[in-house]
Amino acid sequence: MKNLKWYLKQLLPLTYRTQYESGGEKYFTVWKMWLGKIYVDSVVVKE
């Protein structure tokens, strides 16, 4: 049943947004997951 739920979620284009800091720079990242593939777009945020 758990696998069926995962497969059904893969049919929907899901989007996750995160913010983090690494090496003194701030990043804003958008993760998109669709049909089992992950697409990542990361941007450096300037103050």
Short description:
The chain has one helix spanning 2-10, and strands spanning 14-22, 25-34, 37-45. With 47 residues, the chain is α+β, with helices and mostly antiparallel strands.
Please name the defining characteristics of this protein.
single chain; 47 residues; alpha+beta; three-stranded antiparallel β-sheet; 1 helix; 3 strands; 19% helix; 60% strand; elongated
What does this molecule look like?
The structure is a single chain. Strands 1-2-3 form a 3-stranded antiparallel beta sheet, with no helix packed on it. By secondary structure, the chain is α+β, with helices and mostly antiparallel strands. The protein has one helix at residues 2-10; strands at residues 14-22, 25-34, 37-45. It is elongated. The chain is built from 1 helix and 3 strands, in the order H-E-E-E.
Please give the structural blueprint.
Layout: H1 2-10, E1 14-22, E2 25-34, E3 37-45
Antiparallel strand pairs: 1-2, 2-3
Mean pLDDT value: 86
- Please provide the ordered H/E string of secondary-structure elements: HEEE
The geometry reads as: elongated
Helical content, roughly? 10-25%
**First-last Cα distance:** 46 Å
